[in-house]
Amino acid sequence: MTDDNTNTGLGQEGDPVPDVDAVSEIVRAASSRFLGTGARRDRRHSHKDDGTLVTQTDGAIQRFVETALGKTYPAIPFIGEEMVHARQVEVLDGARRFWVLDPLDGTTNFVAGFPFYGISLALVEDDAIVLGVVHDPIREETFTAVKGQGARLNGEPLDPDAPARLGQCVANIDYKRLTRQVAERLVRAPPYRSQRNLGSCVLEWCWLAAGRFQLYLHGGQRLWDFAAGSLVLAEAGGVARGFEGGVLTCDSLSKRSVIAAVTPALFEQWNAWIARQGCLAARGAGSANP
After folding, report:
1. 95-127 residue pLDDT tens
2. Three-state secondary structure call for residue 257
């Protein structure tokens, strides 16, 4: 990634241009310190108001990343999942450019010792995601993307293979946020070959982008769940929309629904099948339309 502001569109007077490699190093440093081999991996946890888990590690990673970004890019404000809601809204409503961090996505997996969780960091500018980093501490995989410059896995371009037909695909489906009608149809007469549900949105986006499965359906993601991963998918050639057809925007903290596929051709087939099932309004999730 170049340091020429006119080429990237990411520069701001007083700050260096955010460089995807430098940003990746911050994320990997946080992972090494709190999630890596020999790290304490503090699984002490409590429940948020919405019933989801939060651990001591979530907070520690968020503080580490926020501090590191603040030292290098002090002019760019920051939104973290574990930040108080009022501050999140203040940044979202008042800044044209900001960082978005999910310090530990897949917290339930982390607490249970299920090895599938990750850290996600994105840069949003004028409601567009322009840089994304997702790190998997278990497999030491770092997915990166810069808008218009492609997606990479550990520095190598992502170029996923994909079958031609829906029936040959593996899908990642989050059943708990779908209506009973749609969930039952997916179980009884799935249009795909096989199904998984892995429990970490930020890694699921990237595994889709890598072609490890080819279809995705999720009824309720917040900005920090999809920001970096959706850019990785888009830059790898995939397509994502909300249940009612809108693109995923960055102007709200409300939950968004997701229909996605690793190629445009598969997305057309997948979206058409979903559309034939009728209303997909999900519990606790809204449309991706602004």
Report:
1. 999 999 999 999 999 999 999 999 999 999 999
2. strand
**If DSSP codes are grouped into helix, strand and coil, which group holds residue 78?**
strand
Q: Residue 162 CB: number of other CB atoms within 10 A?
A: 17
Any idea what DSSP says for residue 184?
Answer: H
Residue type, 82: E
Per-residue pLDDT tens for 169-214? Answer: 999 999 888 888 888 999 999 999 999 999 999 999 999 999 999 9
Q: Computed over its alpha carbons, how large is the radius of gyration of the chain?
A: 18
Strands, E assignment, the chain = 45-47, 53-55, 78-80, 97-105, 118-125, 128-136, 141-146, 151-153, 156-157, 170-173, 194-196, 215-221, 239-241, 256-261
As a whole number of angstroms, the distance between CA 182 and CA 280 comes to: 7
pLDDT in tens, 64-83: 999 999 999 999 999 999 99
Burial class (CB in 10 A: 0-12, 13-18, 19+), 93: exposed
Domains detected in the chain: 5-157 (3.30.540.10), 166-276 (3.40.190.80)
pTM of the model: 0.89
